[in-house]
Amino acid sequence: MTFSVQAKAKVSPLSRLGRRSVLVAALLAGSALATPAAQAAVRAAPVPDLVCRLDAEVNFSPPLSVRVKEAEVTGHIGYLDCRSPSGAAPELTDIVFGVDGTGRFGVLPPTFSVEGNGVGTWNTGEVGSLYFKGDLKQGSPVPDRTVTSGPLAGDGINGLQIPTPRFDKITPDGVAGFDVIGQVCFWPGEKGRCTAF
After folding, report:
1. Which pairs from 84-91 meet CB under 8 Å and 24+ separation?
2. Rounded distance, CA 112 to CA 175, Å?
3. d(C-alpha 50, C-alpha 42), whole Å
4. What phi, psi does 116 have (nearest 5°)?
5. What pairs with residue 183 in β-bridges?
6. Around 134, how many Cα atoms within 13 Å sit in the side-chain half-sphere?
7. Predicted structure pTM score
8. Does 77 have pLDDT greater than 80?
9. Is residue 168 classed as helix, strand or coil in its secondary structure?
10. pLDDT for 24-42, tens place per residue?
């Protein structure tokens, strides 16, 4: 009859000390996250003053193309069905800005961009204005926009846009206009992710 004897592995005091150090470090890290400053940092995600549906139309005159790289821009930018997550402006539900400015066409890669100003009247009767600049790309961020006067003056605007060339505005001379839909947010300071709202 054969007996096997298994030796019990000894745990060195240094090994125990190492495991305790890791445990203490993990507990300290967890308690640091529980400090008021850390909790405030987690809660401090920006909240927009307004979230609105974007409905816009831009027209280029003359049509933009390989031959015409700059044109006048006219049209409108509508912010509709607005709501106020921050509670700063629950009375503001919609505005349509008449816009004018400059449209540009870049060849490589093909890019349409716009820059200009708009003036409109909120549903409350208050007049507001904005400045816009940026590219018209499918599924891209909306062109940079800033409220320059009226309610929420100073707020920055971001969001997501889907610009589509209108068939009635595509001519043998180039593209004469876009319809743009999407969602925008008005931010009083740091801009957050508009699609989160």
Report:
1. 84/49, 84/50, 84/51, 85/47, 85/48, 85/49, 85/51, 85/197, 86/47, 86/48, 86/49, 86/188, 88/49, 88/50, 88/152, 88/188, 89/49, 89/50, 89/151, 89/152, 89/186, 91/123, 91/124
2. 9
3. 22
4. 170, -160
5. 53, 160
6. 18
7. 0.75
8. yes
9. helix
10. 444 444 444 455 554 554 5
